[in-house]
Amino acid sequence: MVAVIAIDGPSGSGKSTVAKLVAEKLGWFYLNTGAMYRAVGISLAGRNIPCSEQAVSDSVLESIDVDFDAEGHILLNGEDVSDRIQSPEAARYASDYSKLSAVRRRMTALQRKIGLSRPSVVEGRDIGTVVFPDADYKFFIVASPEERARRRYAQLKEKDPETPATLDDILKQQQERDSQDAKRALAPLKQATDAILIDTTEKTIDEVVERILAEM
Ligand code: DC
User: Fold this and answer.
1) Against a cut of 0.85, is the pTM above it?
2) Residue 189 Cα to chain centre, angstroms
């Protein structure tokens, strides 16, 4: 098998930033699977397709092509949607539609295909448990709910200083999304039994990156 590092954890735990840096340091591909679910989410919601097993069939999903360009930007049917998938709505659509079996089947197959085409750092919720259960290295990244919400809020403020959202709103949305991601029947957010747990609440990004690289 081609080398894979699996990094899972809840939203705002710092896993995206860390996974990206680890990939850069190793010269490996960075695969953000949350971005893939977000792209599918905005596509389905944009077409008003109900979030149900009946409505989201394999054939509906065949009309949705998700891929990455050479710079790692996410493409939805050929269009770069890197910016559009950053919104809180896109996060909610991703969490909602990612419960459905056809969505998970298609995304899991695509993630395996992309991840196995070259050494990759793959980041998500079910990478160490479902997508790459035989990954060479597995990490589960967590942080306190307050710290995670604070990070998300700072990111949002930096992008849009006029945002009407409050820290409290972010904390509430985060709790709803984490609970939905952890309680769903298919591939829930969960630490693989052989994953190394890293709590980033009081760690700098560099410390976490070094901690991961120390395992290589
Ligand atoms: O990592 P993120 O916040 O961009 O992920 C958005 C949503 O996508 C998340 O709330 C649940 C879903 N997701 C998933 O079900 N499985 C993954 N491997 C990655 C994300």
Assistant:
1) yes
2) 11
